[in-house]
Write a structure and sequence with these properties.
single chain; 294 residues; alpha/beta; TIM Barrel; 8-stranded parallel barrel; 8 strands; 43% helix; binds zinc ion
Length: 294
C-alpha cells in the first residue's frame, strides 16, 4: 500500500494562470476525497500579493467537508504564514525551504542557514499546537542555479527540521532534475541516517519526463508516500521551465499494474482529471485520461 498526497489544489493550481473559483477548488478536493484520496495539500498561506491564486486559503478550508479520516495540509513559508494557518482548521503545516543557497537567495532572499533558523522557530511553534508539521525540502535533487546540491546539506536541514518538531520529511525535486539512481542513493542515505522508521515522502516534477521513473526508484528504495497532482496540474512558479507534478492518475495506474494498493478509484480519478482539464481551458499533461486504462 502506498499513500498519495494530492498536491493539485496547491502546487498544481498555484502555477496556473487562470484564476480558479473557490467553489471549484472545494469541488475538486471533495471529488478527490470521493475517489479515495485521504491526504491533500489543499492551500498555501503565502502572501496573496505574490500568489493571488492562493489568496482564498481560509475560505477554501472553511468550505471543505469536515472529515476525520482526511488530512488537509497547508503550505507555510514564514511566520506570517504560520499565524494565518493557526487560525484555521488545517490539519498539517507543510513547512518548506529550498536546500540550495542560490535558489533560496533568489526566491526568499535568505540563505539556507537563515531559512532553517527562522523556520525552526515556526516549526517549533506549530508543533506545540494540535497540528502536525511536515518538513518539505525543495531542490533536494539539484538546483537550476547552483547545480548539484550536496546530500550532506539536505541531511543537515532534515535533521534540524525534525529536531524542531517535524514528524515527517518530504524531499522535493522542485525543478525535475532527479534521476532514478540518484533517488535510490538519496533515499538510502536518509534511511541510513535516520532509520527505517523515518516518515519519508517524495515529491517529483515531470519536467524532464522522469517523474514516474523516479517514483518507482523511490518505491524500490522503500518509500511508501508520494506527492502527485491530478491531471498533472502544476509546477513551481519561481523555477524556470518547471512543469507539472507527477500525474496522480498516471501514477495510480502504474501502481495498479504492479499490484500495489493505492486506496483510490482510478476511473473516478480519470473523470476528475477530465473535468479539471475543462476547467483550465488548456490541455493538461495527464496521459491516462487521453489513452484510457487499457
Ligand atoms: Zn512542487
Amino acid at each position: 500500500m502506498i499513500e498519495i498526497c494530492e498536491v493539485g489544489p496547491r502546487d498544481g493550481l498555484q502555477n496556473e494562470c487562470k484564476m480558479i473559483f473557490t467553489e471549484t477548488k472545494v469541488e475538486l478536493i471533495t471529488r478527490l476525497i470521493d475517489a479515495g484520496i485521504r491526504n491533500i495539500e489543499a492551500v498555501s498561506f503565502v502572501n496573496p500579493k505574490v500568489v493571488p491564486q492562493m489568496a482564498d486559503a481560509e475560505e477554501v478550508l472553511k468550505l471543505l467537508p469536515n472529515r476525520k479520516d482526511v488530512r488537509y495540509g497547508g503550505l507555510v513559508l514564514s511566520r506570517s504564514g504560520l499565524e494565518r494557518a493557526l487560525k484555521t482548521n488545517v490539519d498539517y503545516l507543510h513547512v518548506v525551504t529550498a536546500t540550495s543557497n542560490a535558489f533560496n537567495l533568489k526566491n526568499a532572499k535568505r540563505t539556507v542557514e537563515q531559512a532553517v533558523e527562522e523556520l525552526s522557530k515556526v516549526i517549533h511553534e506549530g508543533a506545540a499546537t494540535n497540528k502536525g508539521v511536515a518538513g518539505v525540502l525543495g531542490t533536494a535533487f539539484g538546483c537550476p542555479f547552483e547545480g548539484e546540491v550536496p546530500l550532506s546539506r539536505v541531511l543537515v536541514v532534515a535533521e534540524k527540521f525534525m529536531k524542531a518538531g517535524c514528524s515527517e520529511i518530504t524531499l522535493a525535486d522542485t525543478t525535475g532534475m532527479a534521476n532514478p539512481f540518484q533517488v535510490q542513493n538519496v533515499v538510502t542515505a536518509f534511511y541510513d541516517e535516520f532509520g527505517k522508521e523515518l516518515s519519508l515522502g517524495l515529491h517529483f516534477h515531470n519536467t524532464r519526463g522522469l517523474g514516474l521513473a523516479n517514483t518507482l526508484a523511490g518505491y524500490q528504495a522503500g518509500v511508501r508516500k508520494f506527492d502527485s497532482s491530478i491531471a498533472g496540474l502544476g509546477g513551481c512558479p519561481f523555477a524556470p521551465k518547471a512543469v507539472g507534478n507527477v500525474c496522480t492518475e498516471d501514477m495510480v495506474n502504474m501502481f495498479n499494474g504492479m499490484g500495489v494498493e493505492t486506496g483510490t478509484n482510478l476511473n473516478q480519478l480519470i473523470e476528475i482529471a477530465k473535468w479539471m482539464e475543462n476547467n483550465m481551458d488548456r490541455p493538461l499533461d495527464g496521459m491516462l485520461m487521453k489513452a484510457g486504462i487499457a
